[in-house]
Design brief:
The protein has 179 residues and is an alpha/beta fold. The protein contains six helices and five strands; from the N terminus they run H-E-H-E-H-E-H-H-E-E-H.
Length: 179
């Protein structure tokens, strides 16, 4: 009350309380348990090279980032992305994320993550619903699912990935019929 009456009389008293600084160092933040998902659809020579390049790349990315701790490289080699039930490593990765073993997933692109819009969205919804959510970074697409703005882009790119897969399948079938 004294302060109120002093303020009314023009005698303002101000107590300055300086902010306390909390030092936030890189060392105090926990490491992100990071996994990578790698997939190639065929075992052709060119695809095998891509498979090895992806493995080397993600090992380097994870090992050279002081914030990342390698959980595992989940690899499906020579398996189409159109059906999730055949991608054993993908299923294992989702189960490990549900079990709380993974904080972050890296993958080359949406087309490597899958080629079926329903499977892609279902997996991403599952990862997003976990506590805490497990984001996926689609490296070449420049998408991080922890950014809420990416959902429409993911929807469009996953639809294009499925359509591209269907077109390739039709082209192969037409080639077989022609022969």
């Amino acid at each position: 009350q004294d302060t109120s009456s002093d303020n009314e009389q023009g005698e303002r008293k101000v107590t300055v309380i300086p902010p306390s600084r909390q030092e936030s160092s890189e060392d105090t933040r926990p490491l992100l348990r990071t996994a990578a998902y790698i997939r190639v659809s065929t075992q052709e020579e060119a695809q095998l090279g891509s498979f090895e390049i992806q493995q080397t790349h993600f090992l380097n990315v994870i090992q050279n980032n002081p914030r990342y701790e390698l959980v595992k490289l989940y690899c499906d080699e020579g398996i189409s992305g159109t059906q999730i039930n055949k991608r054993i490593a993908f299923q294992e990765m989702i189960e490990d994320a549900k079990a709380g073993k993974i904080d972050l997933i890296l993958t080359k692109s949406i087309t490597r993550f899958g080629r079926n819009i329903v499977d892609i969205h279902s997996a991403l919804r599952t990862l997003e619903s976990l506590t805490p959510p497990v984001p996926v970074i689609f490296e070449t697409d420049g998408i991080d699912t922890s950014d809420g703005k990416s959902k429409i882009v993911i929807a469009i790119l996953s639809a294009l990935a499925e359509m591209e897969s269907q077109q390739k399948s039709e082209a192969i079938k037409a080639g077989i019929r022609w022969r």
